[in-house]
Amino acid sequence: MANLLIDKVLNNNVLIAEHPSYKEVVLIGKGIGFNRKRGDFIETESVDKLFVLKDGKEQENYIKLLPFIDSDYLEVIISAIDLIKQQTHSDLDEHIHVALTDHLMFALTRVSKGMEMRNPFLVETKALYRHEYEIASMVVDHISEKTGIRLPVGEIGFIALHIHSARTNKDLSEVNQHSQLVSTLVKMVENQFDIEIDRESIDYMRLVRHLRFAIGRVVKSEKVEEPEKIANLLKAEYPICYNLAWKLIKVMQQTLKMKVFDAEAVYLTMHLQRLQNKFK
């Protein structure tokens, strides 16, 4: 077993050391930092976890974050991210180690002080990212089991967004923006039709999915063919739905600052017409 040179002792359970292959690594283990100092050597068998981030910038940010993290929570957070990796069966963007560690630490501290943060996009997140939401629920159960702290349901939504961001390599702000946009568009539909869509219903799921795919196409600049005859027919037959579709498209354009192809209005109108029929 190799001996590693200690670079920095963060606390009793966390060290930073020099590794022959990976340069700086984070070492985690019960009591491994006790009575140790910079320049000492440590045997790798006394280490529970050896933590390497290949991206130098992420490793640097992670190391900067570590002194602010309660060492009891750190192990739980690392095992929570391991759980996410097992469940997604995919390579996650390494930024999740920094972003989610920071988020969970803040959440655990808030909850232990009796403060709760509302998540206004919980329902949209659950509908948009079903699989990530399920994994996030498992993470919340795991944290509760290990720490005795039960994170509120809103946190499942926040964690799900982090997972989605890491799976798709999308910036978290973009993921957030799309969830907020879907929420705005759904409210516009409800106001226009003077209805309230049950957030657990198949109608809601369908609408959210349709809007999400439309946003995805816009972001990728994917052109959708416009069946002109159908467009004219829909405009004449369902003027309310057709006008609403265009209002939604205008909001998409303003928010995403990208062109939305006219054909999107055709598909949206058909979808809105089906929805309106359900509620008549």
- Looking at how many chains there are and whether they match, the oligomeric state comes to single chain
Low-pLDDT runs: none
Pattern of helices and strands:
EEEEEHHHHHHHHHHH
The gross shape turns out to be elongated
- Secondary structure category: alpha+beta
Number of strands: 5
Using the CA coordinates, give the radius of gyration.
24 Å
Main sheet overview: 5 strands, antiparallel
Task: Enumerate the strands of the largest sheet in spatial order, edge to edge or round the barrel.
Answer: 4-1-2-3-5
Q: What is the distance, rounded to the nearest whole angstrom, between the alpha carbons of the first and last residues? A: 72 Å
Beta-strand residue fraction:
5-15%
Specify the number of helices. 11
Helix content: 55-70%
Features:
single chain; 280 residues; alpha+beta; five-stranded antiparallel beta sheet; 11 helices; 61% helix; 10% strand
Written description of the protein model:
This protein has helices spanning 56-65, 71-88, 95-112, 122-128, 130-147, 153-168, 172-193, 202-219, 228-237, 239-256, 263-279, and strands at 3-11, 14-19, 23-28, 41-43, 49-51. It is α+β, with helices and mostly antiparallel strands and 280 residues long. The chain has a five-stranded antiparallel β-sheet, with no helix packed on it. Helix 2 (71-88) crosses helix 3. It is elongated and about 80 Å long.
List the helices and strands and how they pair.
Elements: E1 3-11, E2 14-19, E3 23-28, E4 41-43, E5 49-51, H1 56-65, H2 71-88, H3 95-112, H4 122-128, H5 130-147, H6 153-168, H7 172-193, H8 202-219, H9 228-237, H10 239-256, H11 263-279
Antiparallel strand pairs: 1-2, 1-4, 2-3, 3-5
Helix pairs in contact: 1-3, 2-3, 2-5, 3-6, 4-6, 5-6, 7-8, 7-10, 8-11, 9-10, 10-11
